[in-house]
Design goal:
Elements (H helix, E strand, L loop, with lengths): L2 H14 L45 E7 L6 H17 L3 E7 L2 H12 L7 E5 L3 H6 L6 H4 L3 H6 L3 H4 L3 E2 L2 E2 L2 E6 L2 E5 H6 L8 H11 L1 E2 L5 E2 L2 E2 L5 H10 L19 H15 L3 E2 L8 H6 L5 E4 L2 H9 L5 E4 L13 E7 L5 H11 L2 H8 L14 H4 L9 H4 L9 H17 L4 H16 L2
Parallel strand pairs: 1-2, 1-3, 10-11
Antiparallel strand pairs: 3-14, 4-5, 6-14, 7-12, 7-13, 8-9
Helix pairs in contact: 1-3, 10-11, 11-18, 18-19
């Protein structure tokens, strides 16, 4: 899409920039309602290491520009610049990588601006929520159409993570790293109450109820905390209850977001809030980590970053973790993470080489040492990965779903958050509110 088309989309994107909210991995500030549309490509083999290129080097040196949002002072950036890029350049003579670090929001905005001036990089690490937006702008390469070995490369990566790169019938990125959420629970409180970690939704509801009330100091304690009521927060409960918010092709909400199972899940949360068993999303509520570490919140559904936050703020606090409790839909958490994508203005041969390298077993294991959860299937079997701090999350990412990969997701999520707030906090009728939400979502999905 060139000229007037991309300028129109750019104008719309810039207008929404100030209200751009959730990312797929920025959820710690708050990462598919149905299974992936098709089975991702299967790998012929899963290479144990990145092979050195046997192709003739380019006649002239080629620089691959790579934009990312690893913090400039982070371990990830140090590994990228001191380990990964030197190895890539050694294995691929004639290619150099110019890696540029941006802040998360700055990178999104920089890409929007650069799209109109043909100054995009070759490759970028994208929040999974950005892929549909940039695909709609027609600036991403459909990899399955243009890369002859895409089936093998994509097949080496986790299917759930690859679902975030698929828009309608084509793949516009490779999964790069992933994350999800599991249940953190107050170990001492569970023991005193005679409770086991909840395995089912019935166990979960019972535990929330039993653990809520007043503590020995007369303070209110809550069985469950969620810091927001967005899709990132409520979808695991909806999915695990057997509900959904769209059809499997992400084209229709009516009959899904207002289905019996979805209504039942939302009513469960509303009843918990009404009974003072659930909180965290109101202005003035105790921050999540503090509430958990001081024994005011008994359970949290959170990501791998919570382990480091608890170690830093409450190193002596004893807690356990378990998977999302299973309901009629199974144990389904929400998927976050980042993808790596190629822009249409790229040196495609060099960009594809670099993308393959960054998703190789070697690169993924090196980044795992920095806390990034791999998507490469062979890397996931590596001992360094299995013994990492994020190891409790490795089962969850196998069944977790991503939020709908549609360009209008930001607007849909705002409407979803408003509906959840209305039902859970304000007590409006769940069925009617979700019927109204379905109509709004169908209009947005049709855009």
């Amino acid at each position: 899409m060139k000229g007037k088309g991309i300028k129109k989309l750019l104008a719309l994107s810039l207008a929404a920039m100030m209200t751009f909210t959730l990312s797929a991995c920025g959820e710690k500030a708050a990462s598919n309602p149905e299974p992936a549309q098709t089975t991702p490509p299967k790998a012929d083999t899963a290479p144990a290491e990145t092979p050195k290129s046997t192709e003739t080097p380019p006649a002239e040196p080629v620089t691959i520009n790579f934009w990312h949002h690893y913090s400039a002072q982070s371990k990830e950036n140090e590994t990228l610049t001191k380990v990964l890029i030197p190895k890539f350049e050694e294995e691929n003579p004639g290619y150099k990588v110019n890696a540029v670090s941006h802040e998360w929001a700055d990178l999104h905005d920089k890409i929007l601006v650069s799209a109109s001036s043909d100054t995009l990089p070759d490759v970028a690490r994208l929040d999974i929520a950005w892929v549909p937006e940039f695909q709609k702008m027609d600036i991403l390469v459909p990899l399955d159409q243009e890369m002859s070995d895409f089936g093998t490369v994509g097949g080496n990566l986790l299917e759930s993570a690859m679902s975030t790169a698929k828009i309608k019938d084509h793949y516009y990125a490779l999964a790069l790293n992933t994350n999800s959420k599991i249940m953190f629970y107050n170990e001492e409180a569970f023991k005193e109450a005679g409770l086991e970690p909840p395995k089912t939704m019935d166990d979960f509801v019972n535990a929330v109820k039993k653990l809520s009330g007043k503590n020995k100091d007369g303070q209110q304690v809550w069985g469950l905390d969620e810091p927001a009521l967005s899709g990132w927060n409520v979808l695991p409960y909806i999915w695990s209850y057997g509900g959904s918010i769209t059809d499997e092709n992400f084209t229709k909400a009516d009959g899904y977001v207002n289905s019996e199972a979805t209504v039942k899940a939302v009513k469960m949360l509303a009843d918990m809030y009404k009974n003072k068993e659930f909180t965290g999303f109101n202005s003035g509520d105790i921050p999540m980590t503090d509430g958990f570490g001081t024994g005011r919140y008994m359970m949290l559904l959170e990501g791998p970053w919570k382990t480091a936050e608890m170690a830093g703020g409450y190193p002596d606090f004893k807690y356990g973790t378990c998977e999302m409790p299973a309901g009629d839909g199974g144990s389904i958490s929400v998927l976050g993470g980042e993808d790596i994508a190629m822009f249409k203005t790229a040196n495609k041969e060099g960009a594809w080489k670099f993308m393959q390298f960054m998703t190789s077993e070697f690169a993924e294991v090196e980044m795992a040492k920095c806390g990034q959860i791999p998507v490469n299937k062979t890397a996931l079997e590596n001992d360094a990965v299995k013994n990492a701090d994020f190891a409790p999350f490795l089962d969850a990412i196998q069944t977790a779903k991503a939020r709908p990969p549609v360009a209008s997701w930001s607007e849909i999520d705002n409407e979803l958050t408003n509906a959840m707030t209305s039902i859970i906090k304000d007590g409006t009728d769940a069925q009617k509110t979700l019927d109204d939400l379905a109509a709004k979502m169908d209009k947005l999905l049709a855009e």
